[in-house]
Amino acid sequence: MLDFEKEKQFVKNAPGAMFNQAQTLMTAAFGLVAALAWNDAVQSLVKELFGTAASGVVAKFGYALIITLVFTLISLKITKKQ
């Protein structure tokens, strides 16, 4: 004999679970948009400060390295507080 109690509970909870998943995805999407906006702003600042030299490959790798280090330090500081 099949026990449909688990399936009933799954169907009953599905709308709430779908809403929670959509909320998580939307939050991640807004975070990505904010990150891209900041990326563009920082790149513009670097170009403003260093001129055309900032458009080279070495400058882009330097920018990526600095940003990675800064955000790694911020992430470590945030996770230590939790």
Detailed description of the structure:
The protein is 87% helix and 0% strand. It has one domain. The longest helix is centred in the middle third of the chain and has 46 residues, at 5-50. It is mainly α and 82 residues long. The N and C termini lie far apart (48 Å).
Q: How much is the average pLDDT?
A: 83
Shape label: elongated
Query: Which bin fits the share of residues in helices?
Result: over 70%
Instruction: Tell me the series of helices and strands, N- to C-terminal.
Output: HH
Biggest sheet record: none
Our measurement of the CA-to-CA distance between the termini, rounded to an integer number of angstroms, reads 48 Å
Tally of discrete structural domains: 1
Radius of gyration (CA) equals 22 Å
Provide the β-strand percentage band: under 5%
Structural class: mainly alpha
How many strands appear in the DSSP assignment? 0
Number of contiguous helices: 2
Low-pLDDT segments, ≥5 res:
none
In short:
By secondary structure, the chain is mainly alpha-helical. The chain contains two helices and no strands.
Distinctive features:
single chain, 82 residues, mainly alpha, 2 helices
Topology of helices and strands:
Elements: H1 5-50, H2 57-81
